[in-house]
Amino acid sequence: MPKVKLRMRLFFSHMAVMVVGLSTLLIIGKLYTPQLFVWELVRLEGLGFNLSLVRPRLVEVFQVAWSRGAFWSVIVGGGTAGLMSYLAARWIGKPLQQMEEITRKVAKGELAARVPPYPIPELNRLAVSFNRMATTLEGVEQRRRDLVSDLTHELRTPLTVLEGYLEGLADGTIEPSPEIYLRLASETTRLRRLVNDLQELSQAEAGYLPIHTQPFSLTHLLSKVTTKFADQVPDGGPSLQLVCSPDLPLVLADPERVEQILINLLGNALRYTSTGTITLRTWVEMGSTRLAWIAVTDMGQGIAPDDLPHVFERFWRADRSRSRDSGGTGIGLAISKRLVELQGGTIAVESQLGQGSTFRFSLPLA
């Protein structure tokens, strides 16, 4: 049995309502109106009018007039109602049909398709929700393509290095030595770190990364992280400085994730700062939202203005010539940004080329 379109179902439902209404009007009018007319004639006779001789004729004439009036009322009213029902069904059905066609396009992969606005408020809200969903899907698909492209690019270098060394060892052009084995181990370590970072970033972007928020003291955590990095600074390298009030209020966040963010930011600062000072500073902002801010300021090479909007993108590096020798995977800042957002904060960067950079992020106070 073929399916009836929504437009036709709406039209038939309107026509059914009209038929029921007209039938009720005709039946009740046919049975009740003549009787009511007779009662009025009797009432007039009670007031002194002599209508006994003409009463049958008056009733007959009234019935004829009522029947003609009812006939034309059905014709005009039914035709008008039918036309209005058809237009209303088309007005509602056409946008839904258009939305169905666009849905099929999106299902086929045409994610740029959008539903136009509609004058019907309910359908327009549905269109807005659909377009928002399509925009989200388009963004997810674009991020997936970017991830595949970036991952392919990042994996190519260590795999090429591994392939070259292994082929050289196999054909005898490279003599086995502890140094060669250390290089091979270094490349496999880089691959493992890249895979781990990608997995963590994927979980963070999907909202699956566990965040265990609790009140804790930033002062103790910042001191621990600063001490840990101070031991890693080479001789003649930059100095680490902590500027933190001892009576800093407690923050509501995940201490392990905050430490991970600080490690990423301090690691980048050390990587791109050869001399000078790296300052870790905190302060409290008491406004409409009570926040604690943590900033990492370095005196390194800085970031060009055109590059600032891309700092928190996956696999982005300010110094591409040093990207692989520096040991970073290019995902740390993207992970840090998502970790800050998952804890209810924001992260930003300020930088001047050749003068250093400041990365700052906020956390809600407990």
Number of strands: 7
Number of helices: 7
Q: Which band does the percent of strand residues land in?
A: 5-15%
Helix content: 55-70%
User: Average pLDDT, to the nearest integer?
Assistant: 81
* Main beta-sheet strand count, sense and barrel state: 5 strands, mixed
Our Rg estimate from Cα atoms comes to 39 Å
Distance between the termini: 64 Å
H/E series, N to C? Answer: HHHHEHEEHEEHEE
Helix/sheet category: alpha+beta
What is the topology, as strand order, of the major beta sheet? Answer: 2-4-5-7-6
- Uncertain regions spanning at least 5 consecutive residues: 320-327
- Principal-axis shape: elongated
Describe this structure in words.
The chain is 59% helix and 12% strand. The chain contains seven helices and seven strands. The strands form two sheets. The protein has a five-stranded mixed beta sheet with strand order 2-4-5-7-6. β6 (347-352) and β7 form a beta hairpin.
List strands and helices in order, with pairings.
Blueprint: H1 6-46, H2 55-107, H3 121-171, H4 178-206, E1 214-216, H5 218-230, E2 239-243, E3 251-253, H6 255-271, E4 277-286, E5 290-297, H7 332-342, E6 347-352, E7 356-364
Parallel strand pairs: 2-4
Antiparallel strand pairs: 1-3, 4-5, 5-7, 6-7
Helix pairs in contact: 1-2, 3-4, 4-7, 5-6, 6-7
Considering the chains and any ligands shown, give keywords for the structure.
single chain; 7 helices; 12% strand; alpha+beta; two-stranded antiparallel ribbon; 366 residues
